[in-house]
Design a protein that fits this description.
By secondary structure, this protein is mainly alpha-helical. The protein has 3 domains: 100 residues, Fumarase C, Chain B, domain 1 (Orthogonal Bundle); 225 residues, Fumarase/aspartase (Central domain) (Fumarase C, Chain A, domain 2, Up-down Bundle), CATH 1.20.200; 89 residues, Ribonucleotide Reductase Protein R1, domain 1. The strands form 3 sheets. A two-stranded antiparallel sheet has the order 1-2. It has a two-stranded parallel ribbon with strand order 3-4. The radius of gyration is 31 Å and the shape is elongated.
């Protein structure tokens, strides 16, 4: 039975019911809906709008409904449209007229806004836990690989030698910012919309501050029209999900490259790879590829909600029913991706020897050779040209820079001396970095130590 049927002379068609209903997806907010209703019933009694006995019966029965839902004893119906009306219908079936009093001084507009904010508050906490576990894993890996030398890249070309720990700490910073973004968004999510009514408030003497305190909200939204129309918090949440998925995707791209025979820097554990149905030798990094692919899916969720909201007049419009599926899809995708990614990197095998070999034969000590000549009083631009020619020569000879003889060095500049070999040693190139935040062993050690309080 429709709870709003009084105005209508015709029943909705079955196709209309199905098209209109949101219960297939918003039923996952049943606990939030009941939590909000329990607080609302308590407030109604506190303000003398319903009696204490009525509130006590409503609250007790809602608790029983919650337990029955968790136990799988309740089946929601399309006819009741959404989670709010399903629960109210069940409540009314169980306690009769008293159940009909629960909806006093509220609308489904502020009710769904409440449920959605409570849901995102919970989901933000769960995402934060996943990010914290990933950061812990990255820190542990960085601690293990402080002396694992590898090429650092720009344009996917070998650029300068770094350590694997340094590379991992770069991603640590990215995911730390993700964590900050979600925490910052929570400040705008954790504001109470309940008590706004449909859009203009209510004639009842309600206590919204009481509701905020009971439900753990930081503050009350000051304008009822904005409270029921606002989905900025959800868009912001999706934006944070999208940025985090982008960071996962970038890391996965590198793992896919690193696990190839051409790189050979890591091997993905068998538990997080798959084979080929036709080529027996294949070991595919499918978990990493799936995460990389799912980033596009989450971007689509963000664009979907932005598009839903872009042309809406005030206040609530049925279009906003389309806000939940993108959120649920994005957060489920993100949490699953964070979980599998953390497991994958914690079990992968790092091939340090291959990394070090790539660093040696990538001419990545060329900048340090130029800096060496600067120390001999030669202008940097001249040093740059000298070393460029020397690299071209070394490539032609099939040698690393440190394999050139002193006579070969001298043929490019008389400023070279025996100490050039120490200056361009790959390990010394790393050690020599002095700037804060560099790849030097001491700097990386400090960067890891600075994470102790996080």
């Amino acid at each position: 039975m429709k709870l709003w049927k009084g105005r209508f002379s015709k029943e909705a068609t079955s196709s209309s019911d199905l098209f209109n209903a949101s219960i297939p997806f918003d039923q996952r907010m049943y606990e939030e809906d009941i939590t909000g209703s329990i607080a609302h019933a308590g407030m109604l009694a506190k303000q003398g709008i319903i009696t204490e006995d009525e509130a006590e019966l409503i609250i007790k029965t809602l608790g029983e409904i919650l337990e029955d839902i968790k136990a799988g004893k309740i089946e929601f119906t399309i006819e009741a449209e959404d989670i709010h009306m399903n629960i109210e219908s069940i409540l009314t079936e169980r306690i009769g007229q008293t159940g009909k009093k629960l909806h006093t001084a509220r609308s489904r507009n502020d009710q769904v806004a409440l449920d959605f904010r409570l849901c995102l508050r919970k989901e933000t906490g769960e995402v934060d836990e996943k990010l914290a576990e990933l950061l812990k894993t990255l820190k542990e890996l960085a601690e293990q690989h402080q002396e694992t030398v590898m090429p650092g890249y720009t344009h996917l070309q070998r650029a300068q030698p770094v350590t694997l720990a340094y590379h991992l700490l770069a991603y640590y910073q990215m995911f730390s910012r993700d964590r900050e973004r979600f925490a910052d968004g929570l400040k705008r999510t954790n504001r109470l919309p309940l008590g706004s009514g449909a859009l203009a408030g209510t004639t009842y003497n309600t206590d919204r501050e009481y509701l905020a305190e009971k439900l753990g909200f930081d503050s009350v939204l000051p304008n009822g029209m904005d409270a029921v129309a606002d989905r900025d918090f959800a868009i912001e949440f999706l934006s944070s999900c999208s940025i985090c998925m982008m960071h996962l995707s970038r890391f996965c791209e590198e793992l896919i490259l690193w696990s190839s025979v051409e790189f050979g820097f890591v091997e993905i554990d068998d538990s997080y790879a798959t084979g080929s149905s036709i080529m027996p030798q294949k070991k595919n990094p499918d978990m990493a590829e799936l995460i990389r692919g799912k980033s596009g899916r989450v971007y689509g969720d963000l664009m979907a909600l932005l598009t839903v909201c872009k042309g809406l007049p005030m206040a609530y419009n049925k279009d906003l029913q389309e806000d939940k599926e993108p959120i649920f899809d994005a957060v489920d995708t993100l949490k699953n991706s964070l979980g599998i990614f953390t497991e994958m990197i914690s079990t992968m095998t790092v091939k340090g020897e291959n990394m070090a070999k790539a660093a040696k034969y990538g001419y990545m000590n060329a900048t340090d050779a130029a800096d060496y000549l600067v120390g001999k009083g030669i202008p940097f631009r001249d040093c740059h040209e000298i070393i460029g020619k020397m690299v071209l020569y070394a490539i032609g000879e099939g040698k690393a820079l440190e394999e050139l003889t002193m006579d070969e060095f001298k043929s490019f500049s008389d400023a070279f001396d025996e100490d050039i070999y120490d200056a361009i040693s790959i390990v010394n190139c790393i050690k020599a970095k002095k700037s804060e935040g560099s790849t030097s062993f001491e700097s990386v050690k400090k960067q890891i130590a600075d994470l102790a309080g996080e």
